[in-house]
Amino acid sequence: MKRVSNRVVSRRGLLQAGGGLLLSAALPPFPARAISSDGYRIVAAPTRARLAGADQTETDVWAYNGTVPGSLVRLRQGKPVRLLVENRLDQETTVHWHGIRLSNTMDGVPGLTQSPIKPGESFVYEFTPPDAGTFWYHPHANSLEQLGRGLAGAVIVEEREPVAVDRDLLWLFSDWRLTDEGRIASGFGNRMEAAMSGRVGNTVTLNGRVSEAEPFRAGERVRLRLVNASLARIMALRFPGHRPVVIAIDGQPCDPHEPAAGRILLGPAMRVDLVFDLQGEPGERYDVIDDFYNGLSYRVTQLAYDQGTVRRHALDASLELPRNPLPEPDLASAARHTLTLQGGMMSMAGMSGMNGMMRGGMMGMGHGAVWAMNGLSMTGDGHAGMEPALTFERGRSVVLVLRNETAWWHPMHFHGHSLRVLSRNGKRVPHRQWQDTVLMAPKDVIEVAFVADNPGDWMLHCHVIDHQMAGMMTVLSVT
């Protein structure tokens, strides 16, 4: 297997390879500071972090509560929460609570759902999470740079009854582009990258620290929550010597199943919950591999077994999580719509005649769009006056066909709802999968369904942030 060495890749090598890799990982994030029994205080501000390892120089980053990743927010299913967000950046920001089905005014899209939080000001987000699961939070203002400089954190909404595991672990992955001096490279919004795979970095972090190995014990059962907070990097994780079972995707429980070909595909913004029965040998180490990009496989970390054993046989308890209260769509009476993804490198000629809605602007892009949906482009992060591409009657079941006519991958994220994934390229998708971020390969045709039960104007966009900023964004309205 070809490996990328555990060092920062040169900018030249990055451009040649489409994204060199260095691994970082480790300690769990600190909890958010409580402001009351039902609330948290989260501060967005500049700070410094050692992204390339303990023996490397610190990097100037932007972070929530001074840590990379930001403070872990733990909530309870069905319990109201208040989250006070303070902006100590020198630019406006918002927070989007990714994957949580909340009211439209709390969704964090500037102009569309709220006024941006100005420097020195704060905003209180209030909602009651209806679903247990793994979610995350990030900016939706100047998101390419703000997320690219470190503003991301995880949200865990705990089930009403504890899940039968020995440990519950979080691995949040972020992707950075660092210079040889350890600084975050400039050049956010490069037009060429935006028309291809986006800003893929040369340094990958796991919980913000370099991870040579993560400690485990033979016989224990672990719930491992994977979160991809990268701008553009897609991951395909393998755990040789182990048989992980997928129990939830994007926070929503599914039928427990082993991943196809043993690879967990994790696009930007996606989350996957796994359960492991650790059956390795005490004292041994087992690689965790990401091999999504051809010729750029690398070791993410190792599962390091100590000499002890928790139990000799697998824990006798169900792997199935309790289902969340998602309304089941009525496919027989559903309204049917199609959204076609267009544009990008190798499709640029098709963009010249499109009737684009070129509003909002984008760094380094000359306010132009290179992507579209159904011939329309919306650039930037969100703004007032965004006209819906589709309007749904509240309470109506909807079947949405997503057609990727481009040569590139797109993780398509729909705010405020979860989507039942019905089929991919004409084949039924098994395991009762619900997702808020659906990863589409080139030329994919994916059929999803949902009940339009959450009123408001909701963003639908690609979560390769360069693609979103360059036009692959629209609004779907529920009235």
From TrEMBL:
Residues 54-161, 170-286, 386-478 form the Plastocyanin-like domain. InterPro entries: Cu-oxidase-like_N (IPR011707), Cu-oxidase_2nd (IPR001117), Cu-oxidase_C (IPR011706), Cu-oxidase_fam (IPR045087), Cu_oxidase_CS (IPR033138), Cu_oxidase_Cu_BS (IPR002355), Cupredoxin (IPR008972), TAT_signal (IPR006311). Gene3D superfamilies: Cupredoxins - blue copper proteins. The keyword Oxidoreductase applies. The keyword Oxidoreductase applies. It comes from the Bacteria. Keywords: Metal-binding, Oxidoreductase. This is Multicopper oxidase family protein. The lineage of its organism: Bacteria, Pseudomonadati, Pseudomonadota, Alphaproteobacteria, Hyphomicrobiales.
